[in-house]
Design goal:
By secondary structure, the protein is α/β, with parallel strands linked by helices. It has two domains: about 150 residues, HAD superfamily/HAD-like (Rossmann fold, 3-Layer(aba) Sandwich), CATH 3.40.50; about 70 residues. It contains ten helices and six strands, in the order βαααααβαβαβαβαβα. It has a six-stranded parallel β-sheet with strand order 3-2-1-4-5-6. Helix 8 links the parallel strand 4 and strand 5. Helix 1 packs across helix 4 and helix 5 runs parallel beside helix 10.
Length: about 230
């Protein structure tokens, strides 16, 4: 269990944790791959979860071969993604608002630490209608190495002016949990992909099904249960 008294700041991942973007990326990647004559399996696309764009490019080259045209893929997948989000939008994950309310009431600082480039992160937050929620955003652009390296979380803790050992990192991916562990932060695993990686369960400090469950669990230490019902952002 994680005690609320031990937490001085909370660091959120974005893709798959705050926003339900992973399904939108997977759809766009598969459509772009098909247009180029490649079949990107669902399992392969899921294996890209939480990785920064350079790591994704390396995996694409290894999967599709040396002749794979990354520039064409980026152009096509970007176009497919924008068509998808224009039609369907980007959903905020269940429980985010409950947890955010908890942090604000407890006056606990929080920030966003994402492997996405800043321009992409800002676009996603805008499309989800929560562009004003995070005053602290650390992206892949701000550090030398993305997750699973610890750089992004260490940078976020420094900007928040909180010891990383008193930061609670919330992550849905293996890359994120590894980064949190290497940074020395407490971590909660909120898996967005099933089955759950047992190694990540061992590596994290706590695991929950969603952010609503986390909000209720943490607030229980303060003697109150958060309403984990329908969110309204």
């Amino acid at each position: 269990m994680i005690n609320l008294a031990d937490i001085s700041a909370v660091i959120f991942d974005m893709d798959g944790l705050v926003l339900d973007t992973e399904s939108t990326y997977n759809s766009a990647w598969q459509q772009a791959g098909k247009a180029m004559g490649y079949e990107l399996s669902t399992d392969f696309c899921l294996s890209l979860s939480g990785l920064h764009y350079q790591a994704i490019e390396l995996k694409l080259m290894a999967y599709c071969g040396a002749d794979f045209n990354l520039q064409t893929f980026q152009r096509l997948s970007g176009a497919c993604w924008r068509v998808h989000v224009k039609d369907h939008g980007i959903a905020v994950k269940h429980g985010f608002t409950s947890l955010l309310d908890l942090l604000i009431r407890q006056k606990i600082p929080y920030g966003l630490a994402t492997n996405s480039q800043l321009k992409n992160a800002l676009e996603c937050l805008e499309l989800a209608g929560i562009s004003e929620v995070f005053s602290t955003i650390i992206s892949r652009d701000d550090v030398q190495q993305g997750k699973p390296a610890p750089d992004i979380f260490l940078k976020t803790a420094a900007v928040l002016q909180v010891d990383i050992r008193r930061c609670l990192v919330l992550e849905d991916s293996a890359a994120g949990i590894m980064a949190a562990s290497r940074a020395g932060a407490m971590s909660v695993f909120v898996p967005s992909i099933l089955p759950v990686d047992p190694q990540m369960v061992e590596l994290c400090d706590f695991m929950v099904n969603d952010l609503a469950e986390l909000a209720a669990t943490i607030f229980n230490f303060a003697g109150t249960v958060v309403d984990a019902g329908v969110d309204s952002v």
